[in-house]
């Protein structure tokens, strides 16, 4: 059981503290309820660019990293479709440094046109290296735009196109910050060797005076139900053909989330997964194969992807993949098989929650989802999944008309 305390500042900032005296360190996590889904469709990539710019110093602190390193701390951040997340680990006696740094850049980051242009160039180069110049790098650009028609999940976090990043101005950055980095849209968690009362006092001291900015009201278009199969074929200079199939599923807080998570673990839980055993080991159709859910806050995707062996027809490989899914639809799965998957999940979750930084992140995420105490019920929810629930869920979602398929073919094979 992970015990924690929680309170809310007058400006709306939520603060969660978990004491863990087994470590000399403290972890601070600050989550902003703002991701790439909050961008304008014509100007994507802002959330990710802003994450870069938040390390460019603030009105009172010219450099973010230097004082943190002098205090023995380490930090990083990430942006996804739903959130932007910043985190620090630091010796607990120096934890006030983390409060000072994070509160000052929430108050007034030092955005300038010069800094914006520098970071735009960094992000553009990242876009090229990760999405355009890397084998299979553009897969999610294609698959997301195929699966989604109106919801902003149809573009990746880095943006839809380099041209969007190129036209972002410093005013655009400031506007996005003011609308989305309000205290009322942030959750601060602390875990580790820190007293709860001290943590709350420090939160009040450093964050309490930040005014509650008017935040943007989120009003996202709901993705219509997909009623017809979608398919696209592309050719690229890659070493082998690849197959990607995506099915629409419910939101992160949906009733079927844990069942779908177990299902994809059942299909692709390493070398013991059904897909690997059948399609890689037995039939030698794929060189690698994976299955996962995107875990998006809004209705997301269940994805199966794999690289196909040279000389194998992609349609043959796809048909055999579908057969594996159909077997589960028909209830051909044992209680023992399901129990093994549950045991692996429980072990990995328990081990993850021994890490103070993971606990800090999870407390923030679950609080945003509705209840920080979900950190204590995750394993139970997963364990409550039954064979019947798995069969019903795979029949509900894994239908042909709900599927978007990308055939990613190798030009090299035709030369």
Which CATH class of the largest domain? Alpha Beta
- CATH fold-level topology of the largest domain: Cytochrome Bc1 Complex, Chain A, domain 1
CATH architecture of the largest domain: 2-Layer Sandwich
**Overall shape:** globular
Cα Rg = 23 Å
- What ranges have pLDDT less than 50 throughout 5 or more consecutive residues? none
Helix content: 40-55%
Summed up, the helix count is: 15
Q: What sequence of helices (H) and strands (E) makes up the elements?
A: EEEHHEEHHHHHEHEEHHEEHHHHHE
CATH superfamily of the largest domain: Metalloenzyme, LuxS/M16 peptidase-like
The largest β sheet comes out as: 6 strands, mixed
**Residue-averaged pLDDT:** 95
Total beta strand runs? 11
Can you list the strand order of the major beta sheet?
1-2-6-3-5-4
> How much strand content do the residues show?
15-25%
Distance between the termini: 59 Å
Account of the protein in words:
The structure is a single chain. The chain has 415 residues and is an alpha+beta fold. The protein has 2 domains: 5-207, Metalloenzyme, LuxS/M16 peptidase-like (Cytochrome Bc1 Complex, Chain A, domain 1); 230-414, Metalloenzyme, LuxS/M16 peptidase-like (Cytochrome Bc1 Complex, Chain A, domain 1, 2-Layer Sandwich), CATH 3.30.830. It contains 15 helices and 11 strands. The strands form 2 sheets. A 6-stranded mixed sheet has the order 1-2-6-3-5-4, sandwiched between helices. It has a 5-stranded mixed sheet with strand order 7-11-8-10-9, with helices on both faces. A hairpin with a 5-residue loop joins strand 1 (5-8) and strand 2 (14-19). The longest helix is centred in the first third of the chain and has 20 residues, at 113-132. The protein is globular. The mean pLDDT is 95.
């Amino acid at each position: 059981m992970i015990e924690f305390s929680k309170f809310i500042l007058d400006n709306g900032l939520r603060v969660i503290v978990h004491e863990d005296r087994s470590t000399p360190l403290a972890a601070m996590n600050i989550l902003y309820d703002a991701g790439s889904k909050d961008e304008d469709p014509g100007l994507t990539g802002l959330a990710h660019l802003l994450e870069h710019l938040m390390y460019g110093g603030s009105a009172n602190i010219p450099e973010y990293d230097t004082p943190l390193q002098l205090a023995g701390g380490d930090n990083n951040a990430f942006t996804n479709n739903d959130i932007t997340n910043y985190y620090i680990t630091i010796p607990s006696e120096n934890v006030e440094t983390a409060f000072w740094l994070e509160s000052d850049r929430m108050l007034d980051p030092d955005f300038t046109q010069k800094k914006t242009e520098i970071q735009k160039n960094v992000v553009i180069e990242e876009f090229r290296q990760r999405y355009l110049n890397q084998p299979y790098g553009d897969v999610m650009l294609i698959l997301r735009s195929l699966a989604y028609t109106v919801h902003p999940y149809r573009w990746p976090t880095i943006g839809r196109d380099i041209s969007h990043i190129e036209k972002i101005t410093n005013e655009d950055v400031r506007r996005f910050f003011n609308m989305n980095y309000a205290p009322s849209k942030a959750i601060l968690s602390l875990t580790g060797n820190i007293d709860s009362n001290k943590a709350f006092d420090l939160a009040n001291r450093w964050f309490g005076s930040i005014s509650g900015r008017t935040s943007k009201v989120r009003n996202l278009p709901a993705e219509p139900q997909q009623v017809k199969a979608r398919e696209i074929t592309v050719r690229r200079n890659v070493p082998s053909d690849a197959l990607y199939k995506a099915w629409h599923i419910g939101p992160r807080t949906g009733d079927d989330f844990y069942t779908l998570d177990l299902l994809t673990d059942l299909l692709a839980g390493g070398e013991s997964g059904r897909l690997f055993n059948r399609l890689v080991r037995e039939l030698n159709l794929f060189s690698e194969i994976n299955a996962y859910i995107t875990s998006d806050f809004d209705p997301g995707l269940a994805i199966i992807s794999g690289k196909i062996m040279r000389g194998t027809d992609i349609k043959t490989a796809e048909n055999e993949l579908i057969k594996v899914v159909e077997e589960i639809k028909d209830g051909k799965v044992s209680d023992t098989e399901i129990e093994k998957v549950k045991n692996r999940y429980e072990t990995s979750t328990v081990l993850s929650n021994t890490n103070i930084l993971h606990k800090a992140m999870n407390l923030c995420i679950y609080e945003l989802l509705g209840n920080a105490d979900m950190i204590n019920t995750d394993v139970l929810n997963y364990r409550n999944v039954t064979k019947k629930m798995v069969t019903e869920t795979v029949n509900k979602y894994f239908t042909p008309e709900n599927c978007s398929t990308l055939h990613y073919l190798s030009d090299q094979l035709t030369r």
